[in-house]
Amino acid sequence: MTELRKSFHTELAEVHAELMRVGAQVIEAIPRATRILLDMDLEGADYMVQGDDEIDARCIAVEEHCYRILALQAPVASDLRAVITALKMTAELERSGDLTVNICKAARRIYGHEMNPKLRGIIAKMSEQAQQLFANAMEAYDESDPAKAAALDDMDNFLDALQRQFIQVIFESHAAGSIDLQVAVQLGVVARFYERIGDHAVNIGEKVRFLVSGWMPEHVGAVRHRMRQEATPMAGIPIPTQADRNHDS
Amino acid sequence: MPVVYLIVGLAVGLLVSWVACRHRSSFIPVAGQAPVPVSAPAEVIEQRDVPEVAPLSVVLDALPIGVVYADQNGLVVVRNRMATHAAGARHGDIIVNEALEGLLRTALQGEERRQTLDLFGPPARVLLVHAQPAEAGGAIATISDITERARLDAVRTDFVANISHELKTPVGALSLLAEALADSDDPDVVTRLSGKIVKEAERLTLAIEDLLELSRIELGGDSNRQEVAAVRILEDAADRVRGLAERRHIRLEIQDNGPTLAVVGDRRQLVSAIGNLVDNAVKYSEMDSIVRLGVRLDGDRVTFSVSDSGMGIASQHLDRIFERFYRVDRARSRDTGGVGLGLAIVRHVAANHGGEVKVTSQEGEGSTFMLSIPASPASVAASQADNPILAAG
Questions:
Q1: Beta-bridge mates of residue B65
Q2: Does A121 contact B362 at a Cβ distance shorter than 8 Å?
């Protein structure tokens, strides 16, 4: 292996390590944001909003690093997939960081309103589940483990179920008069934030599967599309198939 | 064939005698040296053949703090186990490692620095990372787990704030009410104010009674130990709260399962402890719900449990609710009454009886408190007799 190639793999390892570090920050930010929301800690919310700038800056740095690798090293095969995966993951991490900030901003908007224990309990559960999903996604990436990555989908179903349950409790609480409409709407949006964090974790899992095998979830839809295209090459005018011809004769 | 046996036998014999010789050489004094008694402890400790690197890493790994040493070139050459797993979670360890690298870099430039990491986990940990230049060159960093210290600091500061809240608020109210009373001639106002004064005075009396009870239990002096049937404790505790439960339409359900269990303890203290748990369960439950009281034998311990399906307790409060005067929601504490000593009393009663109290809870779904203390020897024997396997053993 030439010296040039060796430094290339060191660079890939650096990108991987930096993504793991940013991922660790996001995993830590999820319960922190939840505590800020439940305690209505405005000072903590400001702190988190500022902290997100760091995640953004680091994601941009990783992205630029990836462009540099692509331009200067022209990687192929699994190396190319590693760089592309890293590029796509920066977007997922950056967006997830933003979502934790959005949770903190929601604390500002519902400040002064009380939430009943049922609502608080489900928020805590959604937070735990979203954090667990994200931690598993980053582990799958760290170990390049497609099985762990594929399992994320099932975990996400549980988070989705929690979100639906939460929306139901919001309706009930509003009907019982324990929260007003403004808070109800804000909490509905908060539920969406957690659910989206889970979706980003699932996306990371899909990137890991692409990294290992080149598989993308869009392939399923793409195959369907291609089959439809082959069946009808000229839009709207079906070409008689062999079976049709046999039927006619 | 016999030749092969002979050769193998010879080889094994030689090996055994060689090993025996080597062993003997390190214990038996060689002629010409001063004779040393074989049993002398100094000789045993001072074994020079032992390689030094392996035990050092064993020693380092046993340390309760993380130690990392980087040489002049910034290469980490020593790192013990605690330094790798200080956070107890994978993502936490990554965060610790990043902080560690940053501090080591500044330490290599000759600057000593420390950083506190407040990690949410799970597990939640507070870690202090400290790096300084090493005398022999390079830099050395330590990672200490200060979670417990941080918790105790919080306990101390909260204690002062809470006790002043619980004791000063009624006193402040009393003096304000008395002033208003002195200025008023209107008989209606006088009646209303004096009624409030009585209420505040009652509250203060209650607080002082609880405090006295707690200190009495803490001292553990006048405890009156006797064998008490476990289910009687539950019944007496339930009776104390029945009035409140009926007002709130809450059913108290006592689950009495199978053999009569008994404990040896101070009946008054135990009833007071379980009574406090039931009282809380009723206060923090919704109207028209059920509070379940149970008792069961776990090995040689009797576990009393009190479960409700009320508002529950958020996880960050769970390990603090047994502190004196601790309140999950201070704003609402006056609605529910009490001064925040109930669970502290429960914990001390458990400790007095050589037991412990535990809680599991989910906010919005309810809580279960479990108090377990040693069972009376008779109950353990009876339960073993019931169980043919144990009885045979």
A1: none
A2: yes
Domain annotation covers residue B277: yes
Query: Where do we find the tokens 């500044």?
Result: B106
Could you tell me where the DSSP H helices lie in chain B? 2-27, 41-45, 53-62, 81-84, 90-108, 147-183, 187-219, 230-247, 267-283, 315-318, 333-336, 342-352, 377-386, 388-392
Are B364 and A21 inside 8 Å of each other by CB? no
- Contact criterion met (CB below 8 Å) for B368 and B361: yes
DSSP track, B323-381? STT--S-GGGHHHH-S-S-HHHHHHHHHHHTT-EEEEEEETTTEEEEEEEEEBPHHHHH
Same domain, B141 and B175: no
Number of domains in chain B: 3
pLDDT at B334: 60
Nearest CA in chain B to A25: B95
DSSP-derived secondary structure letter, B251? E
**Which CA distances in Å does B52 have to B48, B78, B230, B241?**
9, 15, 59, 67
B86 SS3 class: coil
How many residues comprise chain A? 249
Q: For chain A, give the percent of residues with pLDDT over 90.
A: 49
- CB atoms under 10 Å from CB of A162, counted, come to 22
Burial of A41 (0-12, 13-18, 19+ CB in 10 A): middle
Structure tokens at B210: 């609880």
Q: What φ, ψ does residue A6 adopt, rounded to 5°?
A: -60, -45
Q: Roughly what angle, to the nearest 10 degrees, separates helices B90-108 and A3-39? A: 110
β-pairing verdict for B139-145 and B262-266: unpaired
Strands B290-298 and B251-255: parallel
Q: Which tens digit of pLDDT belongs to each residue from B303-357? A: 999 999 988 888 888 888 888 888 787 666 566 666 778 888 899 889 888 899 9
Shortest alpha-carbon distance between residue A33 and chain B (Å): 10
Whether cis (ω within 30° of 0) applies to the bond prior to B123 is yes
pLDDT at B50 over 80: no
Suggest the residue from A14, A25, A27 to mutate for an interface test with chain B (most B CBs closer than 10 A).
Answer: A27
- Here the tokens at position B312 are 């529950």
> Is residue B14 in some structural domain?
no
- C-alpha torsion sign, points A13, A15, A21, A23: negative
Does B315 contact A31 at a Cβ distance shorter than 8 Å? no
Residue of A nearest to B89 (CA): A135
Do B229 and B201 reside in the same domain of the chain? no
| Range(s) of the domain holding residue B294 | 225-382
CATH code (residue B324)? 3.30.565.10
Cα angle for residues A209, A215, A221 (degrees, 5° grid) = 125
Helices B230-247 and B267-283 sit at what angle, rounded to 10 degrees?
Answer: 30
pLDDT, position B25 = 36
Q: Does A118 touch chain B (CB under 8 A)?
A: yes
Are B128 and B169 in a shared domain? no
Query: Which residues of B fall within a CB distance of 8 Å from A32?
Result: 120
Residue type, B125: R
pLDDT tens, position by position, B269-292: 889 899 999 998 998 888 889 999
Range of lowest pLDDT (A51-55, A165-169, B45-49): B45-49
- For residue A29, give both structure tokens: 């930010």
